[in-house]
User: What shape does this take?
Amino acid sequence: MSETVFKGVEIVGTSDQSFNHAIEAAVARARQTLRELSWFVVEEMRGGLQKGRLEYQVTLRVFFKLESDDSAGPGATLV
Amino acid sequence: MSETVFKGVEIVGTSDQSFNHAIEAAVARARQTLRELSWFVVEEMRGGLQKGRLEYQVTLRVFFKLESDDSAGPGATLV
Amino acid sequence: MSETVFKGVEIVGTSDQSFNHAIEAAVARARQTLRELSWFVVEEMRGGLQKGRLEYQVTLRVFFKLESDDSAGPGATLV
Amino acid sequence: MSETVFKGVEIVGTSDQSFNHAIEAAVARARQTLRELSWFVVEEMRGGLQKGRLEYQVTLRVFFKLESDDSAGPGATLV
Amino acid sequence: MSETVFKGVEIVGTSDQSFNHAIEAAVARARQTLRELSWFVVEEMRGGLQKGRLEYQVTLRVFFKLESDDSAGPGATLV
Amino acid sequence: MSETVFKGVEIVGTSDQSFNHAIEAAVARARQTLRELSWFVVEEMRGGLQKGRLEYQVTLRVFFKLESDDSAGPGATLV
Amino acid sequence: MSETVFKGVEIVGTSDQSFNHAIEAAVARARQTLRELSWFVVEEMRGGLQKGRLEYQVTLRVFFKLESDDSAGPGATLV
Amino acid sequence: MSETVFKGVEIVGTSDQSFNHAIEAAVARARQTLRELSWFVVEEMRGGLQKGRLEYQVTLRVFFKLESDDSAGPGATLV
Amino acid sequence: MSETVFKGVEIVGTSDQSFNHAIEAAVARARQTLRELSWFVVEEMRGGLQKGRLEYQVTLRVFFKLESDDSAGPGATLV
Amino acid sequence: MSETVFKGVEIVGTSDQSFNHAIEAAVARARQTLRELSWFVVEEMRGGLQKGRLEYQVTLRVFFKLESDDSAGPGATLV
Amino acid sequence: MSETVFKGVEIVGTSDQSFNHAIEAAVARARQTLRELSWFVVEEMRGGLQKGRLEYQVTLRVFFKLESDDSAGPGATLV
Amino acid sequence: MSETVFKGVEIVGTSDQSFNHAIEAAVARARQTLRELSWFVVEEMRGGLQKGRLEYQVTLRVFFKLESDDSAGPGATLV
Assistant: This one.
């Protein structure tokens, strides 16, 4: 049937350089175990300032397509 | 002990017909791999309009009971 | 590389005694299957009042560090 | 004087069929005791999933006109 | 005992002149039936523009002290 | 018919000791006049600090089941 | 260049029947003057209850692709 | 058909005197080019304080009825 | 008179490179048809992840000064 | 360098007369100790109703320019 | 004059024991340097979970009365 | 005792180049007068567009550790 279902997971990426790098780090990590990534939403941008450093931290929700047959493997299971 | 713990997952259902169908599609998919579904919350309603069509998309948080003993199988694990 | 990535999961703890107990129950359950818990955020506080009782329910987002190598086992996988 | 005052009450309607039915149930119940209903706002949409069923639950704020003279009866009192 | 309990009710005041007048109209109406008003919060400011007029509409939550003994009359009952 | 309808009321509980006590005070007061309390949601937590004291104030929405027949008495009327 | 730009407009659809019909009415009206509709977001759901009727009102943001050359006509201009 | 459609536009009015004047200025300006204004919502209230002055700035969403036939002229077009 | 009125429009810029580029693309497009741009607000940051790419999408509200005389041309009309 | 930095402080003004007076009182007080006030944002509007009175209370964030050299005196220090 | 002005400051209290203790720690610290504390609002509740511990962290806004004469000393200055 | 207390201040950084530069400018300014900076949260991203320029403006809350002994100097005082 044509009804597609997606799942969202919440990931926090970090970087010493910029929020863009932090997003890329989070997306790269998600690509290691999730197939069919579709879109993301930026939820929050924070940063660490301890000991003179400036660490960018960005919270994303990353969404991917769930395969209708869950025999496809761990990358597509709901939980 | 009597302290029950639940987990919430974020799912996006889609349908050509209505938001109600999109919710039902998302819940049906969640029931394939999750046991003891308890409740859901509608988080967002959007839609696709490309090429003259009207696709209903609804983002849900679906909550289910975690079994206290995680030897119960993949359906009840936290991650 | 030094870019750490975290994942967040949503858990609802319950208790007959207080919101603090409900949080502790949720965190204790998360510790059974998740390694390297880092922080949590309280999202919502509700309660059940049926049949004269008072049940505290607290929704948390619990964040933990993802290992860069996902061969580490189920506790560190993204989905 | 021409200054009309309205009061809002919060009602949760439920239905096995759809959110529309749940809204109609809530409005029908409000009409039993409230006169001069004017408008409503949907505040939240949730649902129950226990034991395989799908119950639609919708929280509304229903607003009605307060009569300036509160001798009009219980349907128009402020509390 | 010293634990005071308050109740909040939602009222919408209207005025042809200003939001201040709309607030005063709502508070004056609340004073007709509620005793021991304590504070209010402005929730929303809207207006009607039909037929060239400008009507100010303000939604307030008005809070009042509940008497511990509910034999005190209709002004202090919870519902 | 099986469509249940609930009503929500907003109550503010206070306590010198803790937010938990303030919640219990609010719920106890609601139980004096409302039947079939079902659930509550914590909306806001504030406190008074005047003259060296620390008063906990918690705003709840308390929901209860409306009886379909409003001849049941004041505890179940909509307004 | 490959950087696409979209514009969003806010529309309120109404219907005597359901929120779905109200959405369809709003989208149909938008299609009369806007080309390349892409997606929409539901912002608010309200309703009119005057004189015993139940009118569904839904506020949408509808987004469409802006053509890079604004000589294309009124349907694609920014304002 | 009876399904009315409205459009909302965002306007910021300013005044040296009060928020009420700023709203009136915004509504007066909207009336120059828009027909059938229906209602507005106050979205934000800010102000300018530079050089000792106090300028009131209010952001409104103003809604007006769209004519079903868009041959009616520029005042009623969707974009 | 000195009461200035502004209008806000919602634009979504996209870029393969960064959110900053997406903002610049949106602003550049707005400058093609709108005069007297004054400020913008970032409303949402999302991204597309299909087929291994990473597209940055940023939703802005861009505000510009409305000329009091609307004979000034299409760039300054309210709708 | 041309990068200006501002600081925001939260102030609550009160007045027996109107929200406008409460804002003016807050701004006047801020001008006693802060230089280079730039803008403010209204955060919340509440009021006191005890003993038959109506006190307007408005929470503002007031922003002022920080001088790059903090030798300028207490009015410009960050904390 | 009778127009009182308050200032709000944001403080984060922490505790190994409970959110209540974290609030008390924050208020006690505020009392060291601020006079005439009036009320507080809980803004956020989070916690630290590193190395098996559970640290409660609560963000408060604490409000205190500003003396109209700022010659009163550092405890009452605006910045 | 081990209960640490932090204070948050609101700062707006600006830059002609990017939001990242605006954040760095704000953090650099905060470091001139505040010791023990711990973390920041991005609250809002806006920009100035007057006279063809594009100025990035970012509102941060910057948090720093309060020393328990306030004899430590101006950098650690609460107000």
